[in-house]
Design brief:
Blueprint: E1 2-10, E2 20-26, E3 48-49, H1 52-63, H2 69-72, H3 75-83, E4 101-104, H4 114-123, E5 128-132, E6 144-147, H5 162-171, H6 175-184, E7 187-193, H7 196-208, E8 217-221, H8 226-243, E9 246-247, H9 251-256
Helix pairs in contact: 1-4
Length: 262
């Protein structure tokens, strides 16, 4: 399978924000979001062709290593997350060894080897998060299904690549897949918000999908750097409080911008 990167860092989004984790980014995606912050795993997929055993070996090596210096610089921010009650660990304790693993992409469910990797990680006693757009279903070992359904704001302009405009728009919405994940796994739902009208689209999505627990829905600002996020946070965070959503700051963008292997 094509692996864009394997690294050790902090989780930046959702209810496990601030948890030190190992990340496996699979390369290749069935969507082409106009604001994708990892184009090397979607628009222009790249990486190494690794076997399941090779991926597991690299994770084991990282598990015994020290965090990179640039990650240590953000320990004060991690303490702030804890004080702000944004760290929401379950009773198993996500800071315990072995480190949890986050499998992301691209779209991890494009790869048949995903099931084998997850089964091995489960046998190692690791907590497994899978980041997915919720457009492809497959049964896997997973402790937290982190689903990011794509709103209409994600569709790329036809001036760029009209083929992907059509393919993305016809593929991005798969509510039956999301319903099945929500029924079978512990889950969170994350929506990328670019403007206030997007929140109305989220409301319509949830009205049509009542199986989704509103308390598990996170809204996160669209942006490529800390300034973009702060500008949108000024109106999105209070809007989340008003409507009963969780606000998702996307700490990894604020910490590391668009840097690979953050």
């Amino acid at each position: 399978m094509l692996i864009a990167e394997i690294f050790r860092s902090w989780q930046g989004e959702g209810r496990l924000a601030g948890a030190e984790s190992l990340f496996v980014r699979l390369s290749g995606c069935n969507l082409r979001c106009r604001f994708c912050d990892t184009p090397y795993a979607s628009w222009s997929p790249e990486g190494e062709d690794l076997s399941v055993d090779e991926v597991l070996g690299r994770l084991a090596a990282l598990d015994g290593s020290e965090p990179r210096a640039q990650v240590k610089l953000h320990e004060s921010l991690r303490r702030r997350l804890r004080s702000d009650r944004l760290l929401r660990f379950d009773p198993a304790g996500h800071l315990a060894r072995p480190l949890p693993v986050v499998i992301t992409g691209g779209e991890p469910f494009l790869w048949g080897e995903l099931s084998a990797i997850c089964e091995q990680l489960r046998q190692q006693g690791r907590h497994i998060t899978i980041e997915t757009s919720g457009t492809i279903y497959a049964p896997v070992a997973c402790d937290l299904m982190s689903i990011s359904p794509k709103l209409s704001n994600s569709t790329p302009s036809p001036e760029g690549d009209p083929r992907w405009t059509w393919r993305h728009e016809t593929t991005r919405h798969a509510p039956d897949v999301v319903r099945r994940f929500a029924a079978e796994y512990d889950y969170q739902i994350k929506f990328v918000i670019d403007q206030p009208a997007d929140v109305d689209e989220v409301e319509a999505y949830l009205e049509a999908t009542p199986e989704i627990d509103r308390r598990r829905v996170w809204l996160m600002p669209q942006g490529a750097n800390a300034d973009d996020l702060a500008e949108k946070a000024a109106w999105l965070e209070p809007l989340c409080h008003q409507r009963g959503f969780e606000y998702c700051p996307r700490w990894q963008v604020a910490w590391f911008s668009a840097q690979r292997g953050w």
